[in-house]
């Protein structure tokens, strides 16, 4: 493809997030550090703050992955975060009351900040690192899933709605700055909320060298200013059910991808669309969510567009089971697999080669794009234990 964007003239900083992952690993990223547990404090929040670990446990029970075949996320460092965030904003997180407001956990207000950093922000930084890592994996393998992440309410200088770091913006900016051949992205945001504070206002994403488009479904567009930046917006009525929802998802995902073929799709797969969600307002069934994810992956894989999925909002007790079921469904249909990447000769070219076998189509598709990965590279011997103690 023609290269639409030029890389940042400054050399990207050294990062541990763009590692080479052994072929044995699935491009599924997770760390036990994702889960927020602290003296039962997490129980004061309406969220199931351990859902990420439960998803992985279900996937292990179903023998899709093991500890040896999952990619362990690394925590994003301050330097990584500064790629998008202002130093002023990161400094503000050193005040516990700011974090209490962002995470909507009032008791955090009373905790010393070193505990807030360790018990609340570190999990969110690790999930953010996971999204950035999954971005590169999606390019390498054709698809990747971060079991956490999807903090679409956070912008470069403002957090909110349980989102302290702008992981999606970071993942895209890392790709734009470090991977030649990647200069356009489409964000498909199917969380129940708009994510108003997020990417829309980030000037870099409006840089003419790069193209970022958004498809946003939500129950209510809460941020009218941000709404004007969204290329394709679908406002859903309160209580929308499966049939109408799935018909619209299919129509608009296909429509958006027919309009523009991006170098990567970031799929914000919020499950707060689920019936009974206290914050969502929609009435989608568990099967509806599975079918929705299937429609998005099918559209991406048929077009050979790398897709990065993050799990975003949705924290009911049954949410983890639904996410796991959806991932298993994608695998059963051949929409995700463990096909490894053929490493070309030379040390800086990676040829994403992923074979797609659809449930009803036996044709195999091959990724043809050649990407050049820049920045720090490191080969590791195993998928796990990447996080240094
Ligand atoms: Zn949401």
Automatic annotation (TrEMBL):
Q: Which residues form the Histone deacetylase domain?
A: 45-327
State the Gene3D superfamilies in the record.
Histone deacetylase domain
Where does the sequence pass through the membrane?
A: 95-115
Q: Which family does it belong to?
A: Belongs to the histone deacetylase family.
> Which InterPro entries does the UniProt entry name for this protein?
HDAC_classIV (IPR044150), HDACs (IPR000286), His_deacetylse_dom (IPR023801), His_deacetylse_dom_sf (IPR037138), Ureohydrolase_dom_sf (IPR023696)
The gene that this protein is the product of is HDAC11
Question: Which cellular compartments is it found in?
Answer: Nucleus
Q: Any idea what this protein is called?
A: Histone deacetylase 11
Gene Ontology CC annotations of this record? histone deacetylase complex
Q: How does the record describe its quaternary structure?
A: Interacts with HDAC6.
| EC identifiers of the protein | 3.5.1.98
Q: What does this protein do?
A: Responsible for the deacetylation of lysine residues on the N-terminal part of the core histones (H2A, H2B, H3 and H4). Histone deacetylation gives a tag for epigenetic repression and plays an important role in transcriptional regulation, cell cycle progression and developmental events. Histone deacetylases act via the formation of large multiprotein complexes.
Main localisation, per the record?
nucleus
Reaction it catalyzes? N(6)-acetyl-L-lysyl-[histone] + H2O = L-lysyl-[histone] + acetate
Q: Which UniProt keywords apply?
A: Chromatin regulator, Hydrolase, Membrane, Nucleus, Repressor, Transcription, Transcription regulation, Transmembrane, Transmembrane helix
Example GO biological process term?
Answer: epigenetic regulation of gene expression
The terms under GO molecular function for this entry are: DNA-binding transcription factor binding; histone deacetylase activity, hydrolytic mechanism
Q: Which domain of life is it from?
A: Eukaryota
Q: Which organism is it from?
A: Latimeria chalumnae
